[in-house]
Amino acid sequence: MENNKLSLALLAILLLTNAIVVRANSNENSVIETSCAITLYPQLCHSTISSIVGTSNLLSLKDIFEVSLSVAMDAAKHNNKNIKKLMVSTNNVSKRDKIGLHDCVETTDRTIYELGKAIEVFREYPNKRSLTLYADDLKTFLSSAITNQVTCLDGLSHDKTEKRVLRLIENAHIHVTKLCSNALALVQKLTTDIAITDEKSLVVHDFPYKITSIPSQMDDPKIVLFSNQEEDENRRREELEDGIKWPKWMSIEDQKLLESSSEAAAEAVVAADGSGNYKTVAEAVAAAPSKNSKRYIIKIKAGEYWENVDVPSSKRNIMFWGDGRSNTKIISNRSHGTGWSTFKSATLAAVGDGFLARDITFQNKAGAANGQAVALRVGSDHSAFYRCSMLAYQDTLYVHSNRQFFVNCIVAGTVDFIFGNAAAVFQNSDITPRKPGPSQRNMVTAQSRTDINQNTGIVIQKCRIKATSDLEPVIEEFPSFLGRPWEEYARVVVMQTTISNVIDKEGWSTWNGQRKSPYYAEYDNNGAGADISGRVPWSLVIDEAQAKTFTAGPFIGGADWLSSTGFPYQLSLYK
C-alpha cells in the first residue's frame, strides 16, 4: 500500500514537472513566434532565434531583439571574413571587379561597426535613459547596416561584372541583410510600444551665444543661378537673420574653438604652396588621431587640390575648414566610365562619424560623357556641411547612409545628382540642375530606401531649385524632375522650397518605367514649378503635421547635435 502511494506521488511529480516544461517551452515558442511575426522575414527570424542555446530565457520582445543583434553580428563577421579570403584567392578578375570587392570589404567592415554601435547602445538601456531616446540611434545604425550590404551587391551587379564573383558572395550577403532587417523591424515595434513621455522639443533653447550665417553665393563662374538682384538681396537678408546658439552642455573650450578664426583653431594646416603643415588634404587626414573624441580642425588654404580624399571610420570628429568655396577646391575626375565603381569615384569620401566641412568646393570633373562620377560621398553619422559646393554631372552627391545635414550649400548636377540612403536634410541651399548629355533627363534625387522600416530619406526644405545658366535656354529639350525611385521604398520630401520652371509639371519620374512604391511628398512650395495640378497621381501633398515629422528636429534628431556644429539650422518648419 505504501509502495502504491509512493508510486502515485512520484507519478504526480513527473506529470507536474512535464507540464511545467511543456508550458515553459510553449511560452518560449510563443514569444519567438509573436516577435518574429512582425518582421519581414519571419521564418528566418524563427529559425535563427530558435537555434540559439538558452532560448528558454527569452521572455520578451526585448530579449528577442537582443539575440537578433547578436545573430546579425556573427553572420556579418563571417561574411566579412569570407570576402577578404575571396579577395586573396580570386585571380584573373577585372579592375572593376577588384574595386567592387574592395567596396564590399569596406562596406561589410562598416556593417560590423554599425551593429557594434547598436549593441553598445542597447546594453546601456535602461541604465542611463529611456529606450525612446535610444530609438533614433538604433534605427539609424541598423538602417545603415542594411544600406552597406546593398551597396556591396550594387557594385558587383553592373553589366560588365563577372557574374561568378557576384554569385560567390550574393547569398551570404543577402542573408546578413535579412537578419539586419529583422532586427530593425523588432526595434521598430519595441520602441513604438513604449509610451513616449519625453518627446524632444522642436525649438532651439535660449543659449548665451549667437553666430550669424553668411549668404551663399554661386562660386563656379560658368554657372549663374540668380540674375535678379532684388531676389538675391532678399535671400541674403533672410540668411543674415538666420542664426544658431550654443548648447548649454558645450564646454567653454569648445565654444572658443568655434568662435575663433579657422587657422588659429586648426590642429593642421594644408597649403599647396608649402606654407602649412601639409601640402595635400589626404596627408593631413592620415596624420589626424584615430577614434578622436574632440573636434580636430584641418584648415585648408586657398588653392585647387587635385586628389581623392578618404576620411575613414577610424577618423572621427574631423572638420575641414576652407578659405571660401570660391577659393578652396578639392577636385578629381574618377568615374564609372573610366573603370571606377560609383562608390570609389568620390572626390571626397567622408565616413568617420562627426565629420564637418565648411567653405569648400568638392568637384568631380569627369564630365557628362563618363557617367557616374561622385564629387562627395558621405557615410558619416552626425555629419554637416555649411557653405559648401558639390559640383559634377551624374551622381554628384552620394548621401550614402546615416544622419546628414546641409545648409547654405550648392549642389549642381544632372542625372540622380543627389542620391543614396541617408537621412539627409537640406536647408537654405541652391539645388541646380545643369545641362546634361544628349537624350538625358535631369533627376534631382534618386533615393534608395530598400526596407520599409528604414528611417531614411531626403528632405529639401526652404531651398531654391533653379536651372543653371547653361540649361536655362534649353529647358524644353532636357526635362528635369524632382526625383525617381532608385529602390522600392524611396522617400523624398520637398517643402517650403522655391521651385522654378526647370521642373517638369509631372514633378516626379519612374525608374526606367518602374514606379515601385515611393513616398514622394510636397508641402508649401512656391514658384513656377511648384504647381501640383499636373503632378503624377502617385505623389503626395502633405499637411503641416506630416511635414513637421520631416524637419531636422525629429527626422535626424537635430536637437541633440546640430547646435554643436556651429552652423545655422532650423529644427522645425520655417514661419
Please tell me the total number of domains: 2
Largest sheet: 11 strands, parallel
Q: Classify the fold: give the CATH topology of the largest domain.
A: Pectate Lyase C-like
Distance between the termini: 90 Å
Q: Based on DSSP secondary structure assignment, what is the total number of beta strands? A: 28
By helix and strand content, what is the structural category? alpha/beta
CATH architecture of the largest domain: 3 Solenoid
Low-confidence stretches: 11-27, 195-250
Helicity range = 25-40%
Mean pLDDT: 85
Gross morphology is: globular
Widest sheet: strand ordering: 3-4-7-10-13-16-19-22-25-27-28
| CATH homology-level superfamily of the largest domain | Single-stranded right-handed beta-helix, Pectin lyase-like
Structural account:
The longest helix has 35 residues, at 2-36. It is built from 12 helices and 28 strands. It is an alpha/beta fold. Mean pLDDT is 85; it is low at 11-27 and 195-250. The relative contact order is 0.08. The N and C termini lie far apart (90 Å). It folds into 2 domains: 22-193, Invertase/pectin methylesterase inhibitor family protein (Butyryl-CoA Dehydrogenase, subunit A, domain 3); 290-565, Single-stranded right-handed beta-helix, Pectin lyase-like (Pectate Lyase C-like, 3 Solenoid), CATH 2.160.20.10. Helix 3 packs antiparallel against helix 6 and helix 5 runs antiparallel to helix 6. Helix 10 links the parallel strand 3 (268-270) and strand 4 (296-300). Strands 3-4-7-10-13-16-19-22-25-27-28 form an 11-stranded parallel sheet. Strands 5-8-11-14-17-20-23-26 form an 8-stranded parallel sheet, with no helix packed on it. Strands 6-9-12-15-18-21-24 form a 7-stranded parallel sheet. Helix content is 35%, strand content 18%.
